[in-house]
Design a protein that fits this description.
41% of the residues lie in helices and 18% in strands. Strands 8-7-6-9-10-13-12 form a seven-stranded mixed sheet, with helices on both faces. A four-stranded antiparallel sheet has the order 2-3-4-11, with helices on one face. The C terminus is likely disordered.
Length: 343
């Protein structure tokens, strides 16, 4: 991609990703997005999250144009080899998701499962142990290759589309922490519906605007997250796409932050006007107030400590040099770890 272009040439304003309305209210903005540092014109780009005045969906506008977004994912997103810590977290998360799904299915287990964005395959492997016939799609070559080589899974290295696995239809399609990355979430859900067998179900897991986590600018509202749902707008999107959503579980705790729902495929798609009554739309003032309280609480409990550690690291490297400074930092971390283990 041409590095001589401007920010305005790489980003574009968009209408609502759910109802296509053009009126929206600002909810959050930040600069210096960590995922945009790969391009000189984007390093100080302002990322804005807005709330649709018509349906209440929160989405990013302006956002990266298609070419720039493709470059972000192909060259700069999830490019490394999975770390041991990452793999442990994925295994733990897979066990928790399987337990949640088993409770919701109540003995009606699916025979065929497709996972969209299956990463290194921990969740599919857990479902296979329960007797399911599983397969997945994963755009990262390194993660997809690991799923095939280490776990022996049937995984395609590509993004999800209607032609994945030919004309096969599935009883369950898993879409966990993927929908918030899509520039057309309604079209994406409709493609999921098309790949489901009659009566099939979709397992959707996304971040929840009412339960933010981590640094808002650094993760929750980072540039790859182009849409953010609430329980209301997630249910509305599913109904518009031809699903009957079950109860949205927005009481997840620990590492499972966010919300989940199991939605059944409908044979017909309802009219848009009947999906999201005005009385159920989210209040932008309440959401802005919630985000301000969250940011203040996080600063008082976490952010100032992170900032102090970063400052200490810069000072140490500045005084001792990069190599010596990194060795001292590593020795300090090992000492803290051993102290904690012996407590």
């Amino acid at each position: 991609m041409n590095v001589g272009v401007s920010e305005h040439a790489l980003m574009e304003a968009v209408p609502c990703l759910l109802c296509q309305a053009g009126q929206a209210r600002l909810i959050h903005r930040h600069r210096g997005d960590a995922y945009l540092q790969w391009h000189p014109a984007l390093r100080r780009a302002t990322i804005r999250q807005v709330l649709c005045a018509a349906c209440g969906l929160i989405y990013q506008s302006p956002r990266l144009k298609a070419e720039a977004l493709d470059a972000l994912y192909q060259r700069h997103y999830r490019r490394g080899t999975p770390s041991a810590e990452f793999l442990r977290d994925r295994e733990e998360n897979a066990r928790e998701r399987v337990a949640w799904l088993t409770r919701r299915l109540a003995g009606d287990s699916p025979r065929t499962v497709l996972e969209i964005g299956c990463s290194e395959g921990s969740f599919l492997a857990a479902l296979r142990r329960l007797g399911c016939d599983v397969c997945g799609v994963e755009p990262s070559e390194r993660f997809a290759e690991r799923a095939r080589r280490v776990r022996g899974l049937d995984v395609l290295t590509e993004s999800f589309h209607a032609g994945c696995f030919g004309d096969r239809r599935f009883e369950l399609i898993v879409c966990a922490r993927v929908l918030e990355h899509t520039t057309d979430p309604l079209g994406f859900l409709r493609t999921i519906r098309a790949k489901l067998a009659p009566g099939g179900r979709a397992f959707i897991d996304v971040p929840d605007i009412y339960a933010p986590w981590d640094e808002l600018a650094g993760n929750f509202f980072a540039s790859p997250h182009v849409v953010t749902f609430s329980p209301t707008t997630l249910s509305a999107a599913l109904r518009l796409a031809g699903f009957e959503p079950g109860e949205v579980d927005d009481r997840l705790a620990g590492a499972a932050k966010g919300m989940r729902v199991l939605a059944r495929r409908l044979e017909s798609v309802p009219e848009a006007a009947a999906v999201l009554p005005p009385a159920r739309r989210d209040d932008p003032r309440a959401i802005r107030a919630l985000l301000r309280r969250y940011q203040l609480r996080r600063w008082l409990t976490v952010s100032w400590r992170i900032g102090l550690k970063r400052l200490a690291k810069r000072l140490l490297i500045g005084c001792c040099g990069d190599a010596q400074g990194q060795r001292l930092i590593q020795a300090w971390r090992m000492k803290l770890t051993s102290t904690g283990a012996g407590a």
